[in-house]
Amino acid sequence: MDDFVYRFAMVCVSAYVFALWFGDYGYFKRNGRIRKGAFAGATEAPLKLTLFGAACGIILALLLSALEFKMGLSDKQTSVPFYSLLPWIAAAFIEELVFRGYLYVRRGGKFALWSGIIAMSVVFAACHPYVWDYGSGGLSFDFSAQPVVATFGVFACSVVFYTLRFCEKNKYRSLIPCVAAHFSYNVCVYAVKAAQGFVEWNF
User: Structure pTM?
Assistant: First the structure.
């Protein structure tokens, strides 16, 4: 139950931040300029780029699942409670806002930008507790194949999400294509887990 309360609180906070971000997006749509002090990436994006981002998320999730299947790791993935989907959807926005929105190198040209993207993608992957865990016994690590592959998948996703924000087609550096990609990836991963029996349908 504590896990449910924590996830519910995270969804509520994410919804509140999204409402503020969406207000800044609405200002941009009405006035054609970014409001002073607006959240990062609260700007318009081409529909084609947004749809491409969503497709990228699905493809990444399916490729990762195929790799795990090929390596015989499908039965080693972790189970998740059924209510995980909403927090995962919330994370698709919050993580994009924090990482793709703010954590990048602003000066130094393209080399600095992309070096920073690689570095922050390593950090992003490391923030996901696949190769590490902090439980009652303290900090522990697991560098077996499944958690390593999962961590690499997160790293690859991060690079793609950053690319969607800083590609030439994204004139206003909108977060919308990144969120679309992250959203579709998370939903697809959840669907794959459900299909393979790794979603627990009870509290």
Answer: 0.95
Segment 100-104 long-range contacts (CB within 8 Å, at least 24 positions apart) = 100/41, 100/161, 100/162, 100/165, 100/175, 100/178, 101/39, 101/40, 101/41, 101/175, 102/40, 104/162, 104/166
* Count of the separate structural domains present in the chain: 1
Residue 94, domain member (yes or no): yes
Classify residue 23: in a domain, yes or no. Answer: no
Each residue's pLDDT, cut to its tens digit, for the chain (203 residues) gives: 668 899 999 999 999 999 999 999 999 999 999 999 999 999 999 999 999 999 999 999 999 999 999 999 998 888 999 999 999 999 999 999 999 999 999 988 999 999 999 999 999 999 999 999 988 788 999 999 999 999 999 999 999 999 999 999 999 999 999 999 999 999 999 999 999 999 999 87
